[in-house]
Write a structure and sequence with these properties.
By secondary structure, this protein is α+β, with helices and mostly antiparallel strands. The chain has a single domain, classed as Mth169, Chain: A, CATH 3.30.1280. The protein is built from two helices and three strands; from the N terminus they run E-H-E-H-E. A three-stranded antiparallel β-sheet has the order 2-1-3, covered by helices on one side. The chain is elongated.
C-alpha cells in the first residue's frame, strides 16, 4: 500500500527557507503569493493487511524517524489503490 507522509514546520517555528522563497517570488512579480512554508515529503510502500494498519505503521515511523516532534508536524495519507512494490520489505 502506498502511504504519503507530509512533514512541515509547526506554525510557531520560523521558516527561513520559506521566507527566502517568499521574497524571491515577490521579487519576480508573484505578489499575490503570501507566506511560503517548506517541508518534506515521503512515499512509503507498506505491506499491510489493511489501510488502518498501514496508517498506524506510517504514523509510528513518522513520529519516531521522519519528523522532529518538537518543531515539526506531519500528516499521513493512504493510497490504497497503489499496492506495495514487489520485493518491498515488510
Amino acid at each position: 500500500m502506498r502511504v504519503r507522509v507530509y512533514v512541515t514546520l509547526k506554525p510557531s517555528v520560523f521558516d527561513p527557507q520559506g521566507k527566502t522563497v517568499t521574497d524571491a517570488l515577490h521579487s519576480l512579480g508573484y505578489g499575490g503569493i503570501g507566506d511560503v512554508r517548506q517541508g518534506k515529503f515521503f512515499e512509503l510502500d507498506i505491506d499491510a493487511p489493511n489501510a488502518d494498519e498501514a496508517r498506524r505503521l506510517a504514523t509510528e515511523a513518522a513520529g519516531k524517524v521522519l519528523a522532529n516532534p518538537v518543531i515539526e508536524s506531519f500528516r499521513v495519507e493512504i493510497d490504497a489503490a497503489v499496492p506495495a512494490k514487489a520485493g518491498a520489505p515488510s
